[in-house]
Amino acid sequence: MSEDNIKLFDSELKVMDILWREGDVTAKFIANALTKELGWNKNTTYTLIRRCINKHAIERSEPGFMCHALIPKEKVQEAQTDELINKIYDGSVDKLFSALLSRKRLSDTQLEKLRKIIEEADE
Q1: Radius of gyration of the chain measured on its C-alpha atoms
Q2: 33 contacts 15 by C-beta, under 8 angstroms
Q3: What's the whole-model pTM score?
Q4: Checking DSSP bridges between strand 58-61 and strand 25-26, what pairing results, if any?
């Protein structure tokens, strides 16, 4: 799986979140963290780690079943955002923004940040 075609399920993203937050850690560390955070069984976590390895999202090394994220969080966020826009908003970014902005009043600070983002995208 290339970085441009990343499809991770929510459960796999929980595993990746540990790696993005902590850096390279052992599978045991990930299993313990997800047991503590989500109440997951260790076997479930190891299965998800193997799935991520098969998808080339995680690289395993020895000793100690060390796990290393092969894809940055930003690439997954981009791919997931593109999928959301295409699936839910017919590929229309303006429909996405309209839906987001109609649901919650933004503060002046948030509006100013959005203006800056739009200006930078326009350059």
Answers
A1: 18
A2: no
A3: 0.78
A4: unpaired
User: How many CB atoms neighbour CB 52 within 10 A?
Assistant: 26
What DSSP letter does each residue of 54-105 carry, written as one string? HTTSEEEETTTTEEEESS-HHHHHHHHHHHHHHHHSTT-HHHHHHHHHHHSP
- Residue 97: C-alpha distances to residues 20, 70, 89, 101, 102 (Å): 27, 31, 10, 6, 8
What pLDDT band is residue 118 in, cutting at 50, 70 and 90? confident
φ, ψ at 105 (rounded to 5°): -75, 130
Residue type, 19: L
**CA pair distance 55, 58, nearest whole angstrom:** 8
